[in-house]
Amino acid sequence: MTQFETPFEAVRILSCMPSLLDVLQSLDDQPREATIFAARPWAATSDAAVRMDDEPPHGLAYLLEVELAQGVLDVWSSWREGTKPTPEQKCQAVIHYAEHDSYMDTHH
User: Fold this and answer.
1) Omega within 30 of 0 (cis) for the link into 41
2) What's the predicted TM-score (pTM) here?
3) CA nearest 73: which of 23, 38, 37?
4) Strands (E), 1-108
């Protein structure tokens, strides 16, 4: 059972998934205005959560807003002639953007 810092925290969490990979796989199902948080160091296997507020869950750090992450994946795909990224490539692209504030080039 998930532990929450306050009784209201359970209500504020839209989804708490076991990994960043899972969050990015369900990105289209998340509200565009929500925020993605993940445990550092960021990796596909990092614990992650999507929330409507800016308060990171305990142990997680701000990664990107859902809308921005979707944009990162759109650019990744368009720079690769419409290729759809694998789940691992999604994680690499979003983490790269979060760490460097730039899109991943086509050599990665």
Assistant:
1) yes
2) 0.83
3) 23
4) 13-17, 35-38, 48-51, 61-65
